[in-house]
Amino acid sequence: MQIESDHTLVSARQIASPNRDARPAGERISLVVIHAISLPPGHFGTKFIEELFTNTIDVNAHPSFDSLKDVRVSSHLLVDRDGQATQCVPFNLRAWHAGESRYGGRSNCNDFSIGIELEGTETDPFTDSQYDSLVDVLKSLISKYPDIALGNIVGHNEIAGDRKWDPGPQFDWIRLMHSLTE
Prior knowledge:
- By secondary structure, the chain is α/β, with parallel strands linked by helices.
- Helices cover 20% and strands 19% of the residues.
- The chain has helices spanning 48-53, 128-144, 156-159, 173-181, and strands at 13-14, 20-22, 31-37, 77-79, 85-87, 93-95, 102-103, 106-107, 113-119, 153-155.
- The strands form three sheets. It has a six-stranded mixed sheet with strand order 1-5-4-9-3-10. It has a two-stranded antiparallel ribbon with strand order 2-6.
- Helix 2 (128-144) packs across helix 4.
């Protein structure tokens, strides 16, 4: 996969999330945060994740959406169950994915990270297509942004563990790291 000069992934479908802003001046991208999401929980292939990231979700559409009222979040990429990537925020901009977070002694991980959401839950295994797509994306990101090291690819739980679980115990970190190093 190729990353264009405008910091977009060539093969990704593009939608524009308004939930983004500029990174602090001089900030270099050095971290990738893997997330998991499904809306409603445990349902796949719905329109609701993209609607959440574009502030168009009808919070009355499902009882589990009550807590999403006035929530403003985004991610750089969303990888669906078929492995299709949708880019919501160009990589050079800050997506609002990490929330209160800390990694390597630094806070505000959104400042220096790229967020990738995988459509999934903590109880459902991720698909082969998702892993294949994720590996391709990560190899491209590492090539484009050399401050991203293999040790700087983490789960949301590793930067906000007191409040986040994702990507969860079903995520195969060994498989991912093996695929990135072969």
